[in-house]
Amino acid sequence: MTAEAAELLEILWGRASTAPVSASQLRVLFILEHDEGINLRTLADALGSTPPSTSRLCDRLQAVGFVERAPGATSRRELRLFLSPQGRTFLTELRSRREHAVETVLAQMPPAGRAALVEGLAAFCAAAAAQLHEGGTTDVRSA
C-alpha cells in the first residue's frame, strides 16, 4: 500500500510540475533552501554524489537562474551555494501546484479517512525525522 501511495503521489506531483529541472536538481534546491550557504563538498555529501557531478548540477541550476554562487569567507577557492530569489519563487509555485493536486484528491475522501490520514502522516513524519537525525543526515524536507 505504501509503495502504491508513493507512486500515485509521484504521478500527481508530476502532473502538477512544470519543472525545468530534473529530480536531482530539485533535490539540490530543497537542500539549499534548508542549508543555505553550504559548500559544494557538503552538498555532494548530502546528495550522496561526487563534487564534479554536483558541480554540473549546480552549473545547470545557475544557468536557469535558480542558484547563485559566492566566494567562501575563509577561502577564495571555496564557493558557497545559495538559492536565488528566482529559485525560491520556483519552489513556492511548485509547492502550491503540488498542494492543489493533493487537495483535489483529499476533497474526494470521506472526513474520517482524511483525519486518519493526517494522524498517520504526522506519525510518519516524526519517525522519519527521528531516523534522519539519528543517522546524521541533513534535514531535507521537500514539501
From TrEMBL:
Example of a GO biological process term: response to stress
UniProt-recorded Gene Ontology molecular function terms: DNA-binding transcription factor activity
Annotated HTH marR-type domain residues: 1-126
SUPFAM superfamilies: Winged helix' DNA-binding domain
Domain of life where this protein originates: Bacteria
Pfam family, one: MarR_2
Name assigned to this protein: MarR family transcriptional regulator
Origin species: Streptomyces triticiradicis
Lineage: Bacteria, Bacillati, Actinomycetota, Actinomycetes, Kitasatosporales
